[in-house]
Amino acid sequence: MAASFPALFGRIKAELQQAIVGYDALLEDVLVATFAAGHVLLEGVPGLGKTFLVRCMSQVLGLEPGRVQCTPDLMPADILGTQIVNENEHGRRVMFFEKGPVFKNLLLVDEINRATPKTQAALLEVMQERAVTAGGERHSLPDPFLVLATQNPMEMEGTYPLPEAQLDRFLFKLSVPFPDLDALVEISRRTTGFEEPQLQAQLSGPELIALQQQLAGVPLADPVAHYASRLILATHPNQPDALPEVKRFVAYGSSPRGLQALVRGARVLAALRGASAASCQEVRDLALVALRHRVILNFEGEAQNVRSDDLIAKILEKVPTPAQQAAA
Fold this sequence. Notes:
- The chain is 45% helix and 16% strand.
- The chain is an alpha/beta fold.
- It has two domains: 2-213, P-loop containing nucleotide triphosphate hydrolases (Rossmann fold, 3-Layer(aba) Sandwich); 218-327, Orthogonal Bundle (Helicase, Ruva Protein, domain 3), CATH 1.10.8.80.
- The strands form four sheets. The chain has a five-stranded parallel sheet. A two-stranded antiparallel ribbon has the order 3-4. A two-stranded antiparallel ribbon has the order 6-7.
- It is globular, with a radius of gyration of 21 Å.
């Protein structure tokens, strides 16, 4: 199945593009994260189709969708589920666990940063352990399980910043751009009628799991792993050879999960490109989406509106690849 992966990927993307206008690079990044079995955080202003994208993905990938609309009064039990008293077949009152909306294959957490920190924290175990603990019992989530969360820009009203531990659970953070003129015209043609395009499933849950396992075995040479590790270290301000901008503006660099995101994503991207092994180029191509939410700015960086994307771009310029080291 992995040998035919590029063709399958193309069919899935083409099917999604029947309903979604533009966003070619965004769709590719979301699908790469999906095949790498990682969660995705989508950031953009309301109305750009982030929620619609998740709904279309569930149809094309053959996954059962779940949805949580985050609001300031949302409680953890509204997401995870709760213990309720009910009668069993013998007429006795016993406690039952009523499952919440997280017990689906593809969970949309809409406007995640409108939920309070207490409710945001309820998703930590869900995203990392893929399980819910309630009433002393552990309830496993269905497999596969993926979270696609949308986030409004922090300058908008009624938002709560996501804690670093929450951000770190997302494999990629993707920025959803505003459509250009041609895309807006096409949106007006496609979305102002009464009929929506009927998307066909190109995959099933078990097939997705099998592909994820196969893609996790794509070879990645030690020099590539060393290069990815050097990129991670370069985001830390306490490293002796860190960039002056990193030492000045960064409070915390990427965790080892950032390295895992680079490696897992690079393997999928290499298979998509028909390569026999992941290379440094795949690592470089995914550095922004894998690390932008893991480079945490300090007060000075925030005050001067420093962008983590710009810092990562400078790190990519500074850290040499194995080929560049050999040439030097």
